[in-house]
Amino acid sequence: MFGLWKRYLPRRIKRRAMVYWYDVVAKMNTSGDLLFLNHGYAEPGHAPNTITLPPDLEDHRYPIQLYDLLARRRDWDGKDGLEVSCGLGGGVMFLDRRYRPRTMTGLDISTESVAACRRRYNESRLRFEAGDAQAMPFADNSFDIVINVESSLNYPNFSAFLREVDRVLKPGGTFLFADYRRSGKMAKLRQSLTDMGYDIEIMADITSGIVRGLELGLERKRALIDRHVALPLRGIVRGFAGLSRGRDEERDKFHAGVKSYLMAVLTKPNTAQS
Ligand SMILES: C[S@@+](CC[C@H](N)C(=O)[O-])C[C@H]1O[C@@H](n2cnc3c(N)ncnc32)[C@H](O)[C@@H]1O
Q1: Number of domains the chain is built from
Q2: pTM of the model as a whole
Q3: Nearest CA owner, ligand 1 atom 15
């Protein structure tokens, strides 16, 4: 049923439903248990845990490790950072706590998510704005680092998003990106990122680490849904979360090569030096 819904509804309606869904998730998250909405990352092999975390963040290890995979490539000290599509604000909070940028701004199209972030994180260094990734409410050259995690799949116009990243990023600034696509669309995604004309430090397939993150995070995801979602709605919510018929169907798609996950670390040319 969920699969049919996803396949046959017009894009415009699906987009509205997507924003509504993220609003509902933010509203339902009254306990604040949910901080991240990404698949999570764990190093493939024997040592899946790549960072030491304080006890209050341990529960969120794998979604955090996806952020950290990108964030550790840069020194954030004294920098102004922007997360485009910050969701429930866990990424902004983690980056602030671990990397201590000068300021950190989160942008999201879900007004309920932004309101929840403002209530939860009211430190003066942190700012949350409602807005569209394809038309950001920021001045040109405002940020040193722009990060975008597992959200661009939802943007109807990915090129418009990349143009906006380029506009708000300072010369010499860094664009940190992670997201997935159907594997047949991966070449196009890589080409769009390459066409930005940025210096490509990393553009790498991280699918195996995502599969591991999904596997290790599965029990927590199940428990969260069981704890917060009323029994009659659990099937629908499990479908949205990629869990049904007792399996993690999302994990199966990555494992079987139907979907692939990409990370990129890109630097905007420093025009002042060229
Ligand atoms: C899968 S969640 C990821 C959130 C966060 N990056 C994380 O990893 O927890 C996708 C987010 O993208 C946001 N989003 C979708 N379309 C957007 C758009 N056009 N502009 C800004 N945010 C958007 C949604 O509201 C949602 O919070």
Answers
A1: 1
A2: 0.92
A3: 154
Task: Tell me if 273 is assigned to some domain.
Answer: no
pLDDT (tens digit per residue) in 121-180:
988 899 999 999 999 999 999 999 999 999 999 999 999 999 999 999 999 999 999 999
Q: Is the C-beta atom of 213 inside 6 A of ligand 1? A: no
DSSP letter at 150 equals S
What is the distance in A from the centroid of ligand 1 to the CA of 171?
25
Q: First-to-last CA distance in the chain?
A: 55
Task: Give the CATH number, domain containing residue 237.
Answer: 3.40.50.150
Q: Which residue of 154, 168, 176 sits with most ligand 1 atoms within 8 Å of its CB, as the best mutation to test the pocket?
A: 154
| Ligand 1 binding pocket includes 132 (Cβ within 6 Å) | yes
- Is 85 near ligand 1, meaning CB less than 6 Å away? yes
Percent of the chain surpassing pLDDT 90: 68
**Parent domain of 175:** 2-267
Q: Ligand 1 atom closest to Cα of 37?
A: 9
> Cα–Cα distances in Å, from 33 out to 11, 52, 234?
31, 20, 17
Q: Edge-to-edge strand order for the sheet containing 199-205?
A: 126-130, 103-108, 80-84, 143-149, 169-182, 259-267, 199-205
Reply yes or no on whether the pLDDT at 272 is more than 80.
Answer: no
